[in-house]
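User: Structure tokens for both sequences below?

Assistant:
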Amino acid sequence: MKTRYIAATLVKSRTHAKASNRTKEMIHIDLFSGIGGFALAAHWAGWRTLVTCEIDNFCRRVLRYHFPEAYHHNDIHTLTYETIDVELSKRYGTLWRNEDIVLTGGFP
């Protein structure tokens, strides 16, 4: 299943990441996002939601409005670690890989 592949790849990349002298930050990746319930909870916890994945157009518009800095993907079937890496590296540089990552999924 593709979701397991993404999660396993993210964990693998975290274990091989180089140590950094700066303070770590929690990064949140939200799959099956809906209108952003997990992303809102992550925000309340002080985490940054950097990726959302939602197929519904209306829900994606809500997510873009409330989380304009995040990368918003529209189909879980085409979301890969490589896509996440390219998009986040464009926005935040390669240091995002050294942060702690929380992956959530709002399964129906």
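Moving on to the next sequence.
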Amino acid sequence: MKNPILIAGPCVIESAELLDVIARELVRINVALNRQIIFKASFDKANRTSLHSFRGPGISRGLQMLADIKEKVWPYADYGHPRKLSGRTGW
């Protein structure tokens, strides 16, 4: 493959601040390497080993956090599976 597309980001959204730091670093890497990078982060990580593990901020808050990142730093953010977004306006 000549110019692979990289998909990168945190496994799960922990905070808006960390999301911003990671997105800005990926933009820096994108510019430095001249590669297309798709920013990806989960708002609900359900596949945890414990029912008590942190799963993320949930769909409403998580989507808002991703939209904020998209507006501030990133031209594309992966919002997850389309079924999770059905009925959401603007997505």
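User: Anything stand out in the second?

Assistant: The CA atoms of residues 85 and 91 lie 7 Å apart.
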